[in-house]
Prior knowledge:
The protein is α/β, with parallel strands linked by helices. It has a single domain (6-249), classed as NAD(P)-binding Rossmann-like Domain (Rossmann fold), CATH 3.40.50. It contains nine helices and seven strands, in the order βαβαβαβαβαβααβαα. The chain has a seven-stranded parallel beta sheet with strand order 3-2-1-4-5-6-7, sandwiched between helices. α1 (15-26) links the parallel β1 and β2 (30-35). The N and C termini lie far apart (61 Å). The mean pLDDT is 92. This is SDR family NAD(P)-dependent oxidoreductase. Residues 5-184 form the Ketoreductase domain. Pfam families: adh_short. InterPro entries: KR_dom (IPR057326), NAD(P)-bd_dom_sf (IPR036291), Sc_DH/Rdtase_CS (IPR020904), SDR_fam (IPR002347), SDR_oxidoreductase (IPR051911).
Amino acid sequence: MSTPKTWFVTGASQGLGLTLVKRLLREGHRVAATSRSQETLAQAVGTTSAAFLPLQVDLGDDGSVQAAIAQTISTFGRLDVVVNNAGYGIGGSIEELSEAETRQVFDVNVFGTLNVCRQALPHLRQQGAGHIINISSIAALAGATGWAVYSATKAAVSAFTEGLAQDVASFGIKATVVEPGGFRTNFLTAESLTLPQQPIAAYADVRASHARYLALNGAQGGDPEKAAAAIIQLAAEANPPLHLLLGPDAYQRATQKLDVLRQNFEAWQPLTLSTSFEA
């Protein structure tokens, strides 16, 4: 078993977040977990103990996040690992999704994650240690038809985690972005996904892509228990990676993207280099 730590996990009432919280508690860690409903979270975890702090938090409200972090510190005395897991999927072409829908998914997936990082960092800096783990997606590195806005939110998380890791390294704080593929959670259910309310018939390829993904529900190749174990192992590493792919499909999509990028860069190298000032 890894050394017991104090964890702060967002989006913990279902999916990977719930699996992670349950495993952490079984392994003897202290866990502050957030959800939009404290009651739903407590029922889902099914464990009441001095090591478990369920919190009702609006991640889009910086004050709500600040209060949750403060309560975690007050209850457990410190904070070791922050896991920004909360988020949801949205599908559709850019043209089909309203401004309100687009802003909402950025508010949750990106700004909610930023709010947690902003409020946790003063505590981590003061103690000179800590690990921020942001859950992104393989879609951040290798997008797919019909998921442009979702991919954009996850690409933002991956990109700002890279900058964050450099900003906080001198304080003894580590940052990792986890980019999973498909895991057998409720992510691909119609209840969990936001899809266009008024789909445009011309986007046949987008509809076909959504149908393929929805058909995978319950048959995804990733095991959430193994993903949770991997995240716990990650937090125990002295030198964790900046990027961690989870799942064979994530590895395949990422390496294929690397090949495509390399070919693209090399093919257009003459035009790229032609833009420099002449000596």
